[in-house]
Each structure stands twice: as structure tokens, then as C-alpha cells.
Amino acid sequence: MWQLLQIELYKIFRKPRTYIAFGATASLIVLLQFGLKVDGQEYADFMLQSLGNFDVQGKLLNGYMVCYIILQLMLVHVPLLVTLIAADMISGEANVGTLRLVLSKPYSRASIILSKFFATCIYTLLLLIWVAILALFVSILIFGTSDLFLMKSQYIVLIKQDDVFWRYCFAFGFAFIALVTVASVGFFLSSFAENSIGPIVTTMSIIILFTVLGTLNLPVFNAINPYLFTTHMVTWKEFFDEKVNANNEAISGTIQNLPSILHSLLILCTYIVVLISATIFIMKRKDILS
Amino acid sequence: MKFYLKILLLFITVHSSLFSFSQDVTGLVNKVKAKLDKVNDYTATGVLKTDVAFIKAPVSKVIIYYKKPNYFRLKKNGGISILPKGGISVNMGSIIGTDNFTALDAGDAIVNKIKTKVVKLLPNDDNSNVVLSTLYIDESNFLVYKAVTTTRENGTYELTMQYGKYADYGLPDKVQFSFNAKDYKLPKGLTLDFDENTSTDEMNKLKNKKGKVEIDYTSYTINKGVDDAVFK
After folding, report:
1. How many CA atoms lie within 13 A of B108 on its CB side?
2. What whole-number distance in Å separates Cα of residue A175 and Cα of residue A125?
């Protein structure tokens, strides 16, 4: 299995398209950081207008805040980049005519499919680490650290700076599961196709469609929203909300809605298990002609 | 003729008694002011508690700087603080920092089990930001235990003070600052929180509540000088 995984990783990182995601995320993050460094204060002032009778003093636009802004914007787009690799894993081999050769190796089809899936997971993890380095650590280097001040649509959360880093660790961990879910969708669709364009475009379309359905917030779609994986992909934000005590004082080290995070994790993991099992099932029965 | 004389006498009596009341409370306010005038500047450490329905903020350590006549700055070491605009700087120094006011006796009241004289302060300056202040003054120690101040720009604030070892300087150990917090709502497009599902009950809890900010002073360094740069 380890040998298979190494081969799959070699295949992934030999393709130039693998590096598109790293380049795209880097340029987007650097652009955002540049924009916030130059005009960040105006952005902050604009946000603070809605606070009316309150003065906010301190370093509002710090590395933690910048990272949060970047993640909010990027975690909608990074799944699309993961799709480029995940949806190509099986169909790409079929397209170039090597799938039959690969499956003729003295390994079970399940092992080969799982090694491809784990290789995709490792790629996703590396991409996420890349995003974490650029969005969090580089932002801290450029903007410094301070408390994290978050303006939600109904309330404001102020998290002490020594209480922020662990939240990011867990948020990135959660984002990894979310991205693996996307990879699973692409991987599953990849098992049906003979070329990679179809599953890549279909996976992207599903992500866009589900995201739009979730954003519309119309009663007719509200019934299905809890079952869409895109609804649960953004639950990482729950790590950045604190509980308060009877005196309305925020309690450091707490998470406001841990059950919601666990529920989302359960849904996402269910997606992963079902889709990967279905992929193995299909591939085991599939008559490989290419 | 006798009737008019009686009216005149009554008018003189009422006017003089009112004038003497006014003189009494003006004297009382001046005594409080004289006590506060002993402090030219201070640097204090304290703990800040924010209790506003739509703000989740932890209790945090702060440093407070004051310098005559009216400079006030609260700093959270390396952190962010959310304070009512222009409000927390409304301290006793800023309320009775000027001689240009009219003081009126408004009776007696009990604040925190302490008998106080209620004094209404009307600034004589038409352009003053403070429209009216009501002070609850302990006549024996010349300490203000409560102040309700209405300002032109930032509404009405209520300050409640508790005194301890710095009472000789008129400096409180604890200040509780109450104000009317307006509703807060930000478009989801701005926060990018499209997924946020706060229940109606929770939303109602966040509305129409009085806001409170409390500072527990742990220590004061008085009249040792404060750099002007702190207030910039």
C-alpha cells in the first residue's frame, strides 16, 4: 500500500497542473495581504461604521484578523482547486489509457483506489499547509498579532490573542476534512468518466450549485440545506465564537457551538465514507476497457 | 398696599432661600472639585469588564491614564478594547472640571446605602457637550457616588462609583458605566456569514438592553507625571 501511495504521489506531483493550485492560492493571498496593508485601515473603518456609539481601540488589522478575512474568501475557492486533482485521479488514467495497466498490478482494486484517494488527501493537506503558512504565518509577520475582533451579522466577538492560535489549528483541521469531502465527490465522479474534464466541471458545478442554494436562504431550499456538504464546509468559523458567562463575559478557551461542529464533521465524514465506498464498489465491478 | 408688601416679602423670602440653597450646593460642588483638584495626573491599572448584549468580550487588564484638564485614555496592553464613544472618558474631572455651571439642589437620595445630596449641574456654556449632570454627593466626605450625565452627542450615561483607599483624592476603586446600547446589525454580505443562523430568541435577547462597562481599579500612581504622547 505504501509503495502504491508513493507511486500515486509521484504521479500527482509530476503533473504541472498540480502546482496551479499552489500558485493561484499564493498570488491571491499575496494580493489580499498587499491590499489590506495599503488600504486596510479604510476597510476597518468602513466595518466599524456600523458600531455607531462605540470606539474600538487597538491593532484591529493584525495577522489573525487578516488570516480570517483570507480564509473566509478562500475556502470557497480552494475546493475548486482541489477538484482539479481529485477528479482527475481515475479518469485521467482512463484518458491516457493507463488505467487497465494500473489495475492489472498484483494489488486489489480496493488498494489501488484507496492509494489514489490517500494520495489526493496528502495533496489536499499540503495545499492547506501552504495556505496556512501564507495566510496565517506570513500575515502575522507582516501585520503582527493582537486580539481577534470579529464582526458577525448579529454580534461582535473579541478573542484574546493568546486564545486564537489553537482555534486556527482546529479550523485548518476542519477545513482539511471539508476539502477531503470535495475531493471525494470529484474522486467518485472520476470513476465514471473516460476523461478528466467531465468530472472536474461536474464537481465544480455541484459545489457552485450547492453553495448558491445555501446562500439563497429560501424556505423551499432550507429543507435540503442541512444535507448539502457545502453547508457544513463553512462550520470552521464556529471555532471563532466563544461562550459567555452569566455576566456576559466571554470565557477564554471555549467554543460557543461545539455540537454544531461535531454534527458538521459527522455529515462530512459520512459523505467521504459513502462516496469512497461507492467508488471502490463501482471500480470493483467496472469492466475496464481503457 | 399691605397685600403688595406681603407679596414682595414672600418673593424676597423664596428667592433668598433658593439663592442660599443654590449657594450651598455650589459650595458643596466646589469642595468636591477642590478634592479632585489635588490630582494633576494619574496612571492606574485595572480590570475592564464589558457587558453589552451584542458584544462578546473577555475580562481584560487595562492601563488608564488621566491628565488635567480633561485628558483620559484607556489602553489594553497589546489588545483591542471596545468602549462607548466619548463615554468612558466622562469622569468626575470632566463633569465638574469647570467653574462655569449653575448648581441646583434636588433633594436627598440614598446610593449604595449612603445618604447623598442630589445636585443638578447646568453648564452655563451654550456650546458645552454636557447638557445636564445630576450628581449624588456624600456631603461628609465630598465624594460623588453616582452621576447621570446627558450629553449632546452620545446620549445619557450613568456612572456609579465605589471608593476605597484612594478616596482622599476622590478617585474610585470601581466605576460602573451604564448607557443605552443601540441595536447592532451588519449585512451578511459584509461579514460573509451567509451560513449564520442565529435564532429569533437569541436575536431578541441581543436587543434593547442597557450596556455596562465596569472598571475595577487595582492601583493608582498619582501626580507622578504622564507623557502627553499617551493621549495621542
Report:
1. 7
2. 10
Q: Is the dihedral of CA B187, B189, B193, B198 positive or negative?
A: positive
pLDDT digits (tens, 9 = 90+) for A199-257: 999 999 999 998 888 877 788 888 888 899 998 988 999 999 999 888 888 898 899 98
Q: Return d(Cα A174, Cα B172) in angstroms, integer.
A: 48
| A237 in B contact zone (CB under 8 Å) | yes
Dist. CA A186–CA A180, nearest whole Å: 10
Backbone angles phi, psi at A174, to 5 degrees: -65, -40
The answer to whether the Cα torsion of A264, A233, A26, A69 is positive or negative is negative
Angle at A250 between CA A247 and CA A256, to 5 degrees: 115
Which of these, A3, A8, A13, A208, lies nearest to A98 by C-alpha position? A8
Res B20: pLDDT: 46
Contacts of A157 in chain B (CB under 8 A): 56
Check if B196 contacts A (Cβ < 8 Å): yes
Is the pLDDT reported for residue A153 higher than 80?
no
Q: What is the structure's pLDDT at A136? A: 94
Q: What share of chain B is helix, strand, coil (3-state, %, to 5)?
A: 25, 45, 30
Confidence of residue A53 (pLDDT cuts 50, 70, 90): confident
pLDDT at B78 over 80: no
**Residue B48 grid coordinates:** 475592564
Best interface-test mutation with A: which of B195, B196, B202 has the largest number of A CBs within 10 A? B195
Per the CB < 8 Å rule, is A250 touching B56?
A: yes
What is the rounded average pLDDT of the residues B38-66?
Answer: 89
ipTM of the complex: 0.78
Whether residues B194 and A214 touch (CB distance < 8 A) is answered with: yes
Residue A174, classed as helix, strand or coil, is helix
Q: Does A47 touch chain B (CB under 8 A)?
A: yes
Torsion of CA A47, A51, A55, A56, to 10 degrees: -40
pLDDT at B197 over 70: no
